[in-house]
Amino acid sequence: MLDLRQIRYFVAVAEAGNVGRAAEQLHISQSPLSRQIMQLEEQLGVTLFERAKQRVHLNAEGRAFLAEARALLANAARLEEIGRNLASGAAGSLAIGYVEGAVHAGLIAAMLKDFRRARPDFHLQLRSLRTAAQFDDLRQRVLDLGFVYAPAPEGDPDVESMLVRREPLVLAMSEGDPLAGAAAIAPGQLDGRVWITVVRQPGDTNRAQFLAACAESGFMPDITYETNDPLTSLGLVSAGLGLATVQQSLRSAAPPGVAFRDLPWFKRSVSIHLAWRRNDRRTVIGDLRRAANSE
User: Fold this and answer.
1) Which of helix, strand or coil describes residue 147?
2) Residue 28: which of 53, 49, 5, 50 has the closest Cα?
3) CA dihedral in degrees (78, 83, 87, 88; nearest 10)?
4) Looking at domain 167-270, does it have CATH number 3.40.190.10?
5) 3-state DSSP call for residue 186?
6) For residue 43, how many other CB atoms are within 10 A of its CB?
7) Smallest Cα–Cα separation from 232: which of 217, 210, 212, 254?
């Protein structure tokens, strides 16, 4: 295999046309430089220079080899730069998972806004996945980061997380609902009303958690509709088909005809956590974690 150092020496001698001058430019002695050039010729099995007294001239083979040698050194320099960029986080690729609540809260856009400006050559993949699937993909190195609804399992040896946002749930109702004009809403006013909830299959616990929070607050909902995302629920609310609770940041995304009321006594919220692999020490991961934590 060719030695890049010998290739650099060859190019320096070819461009200087003199071993002594090339040695000065390379800050080495003339004898070892001559020895390296001869070793290169022996390895290639071809003479690259015509030697006459103090000067050396490329022969036809040397001129052909010089063009390829320059290209090789340029590619080597580019490869070295790519390596430095990868190490510093200036280039590369990342796969980021997310739950829809992170999108509604604006967490992904906020985290990536400055990141994209600082690293325009970075390739990003964003994948909508449930929380459990993201933890599995982080362990399998399919994902690099994940916005999830739950913290990493306690004592997990591979994955850790931090809380980046906790939002209260607000009550959504049609603007024509009798409660829309109420200054404050008591739990008893919601008892027996028709409700719309979000169910994420399979193995969803959202319904059970919602019912438990309602019972703790002192009312029992009549869950008539179940959807797979909160925006669909808000569409049904807009049509006057029932009530729903959604995270506060969805106020701005609601369709026309929906009114919102705070429920300070309702002991339930939406929590968004950022998860990553414990042993991932890349600079880019640390930068993104800090960006997400600043929101």
Assistant:
1) strand
2) 5
3) 0
4) yes
5) coil
6) 12
7) 254
Query: What DSSP designation does 18 have?
Result: B
How far apart CA 52 and CA 232 sit, in angstroms, is: 85
- Other CB atoms within 10 A of residue 230 CB: 24
Q: How far is CA 93 from the centre of its chain?
A: 8
pLDDT of residue 201: 56
What CATH number does the domain located at 93-164+271-293 have? 3.40.190.10
pLDDT score for 210: 85
CA distance 130 to 118: 29
Q: What percent of the chain has pLDDT over 70?
A: 94
Q: Please indicate whether the domains covering 4-88 and 167-270 agree at the CATH topology level.
A: no
Q: Mean per-residue pLDDT for 246-270? A: 92
Reported as type and span, the H/E element at residue 259 is strand 258-262
Domain boundaries, the chain: 4-88, 93-164+271-293, 167-270
Q: Give the per-residue pLDDT at 208.
A: 82
Cα–Cα distance for residue pair 86/150, rounded to 1 Å: 31
Low-confidence winner among 36-45, 61-70, 77-86, 190-199 (lowest mean pLDDT): 77-86
Query: What value does the mean pLDDT take over residues 39-63?
Result: 86
Q: Which fold has domain 4-88?
A: Arc Repressor Mutant, subunit A (1.10.10)
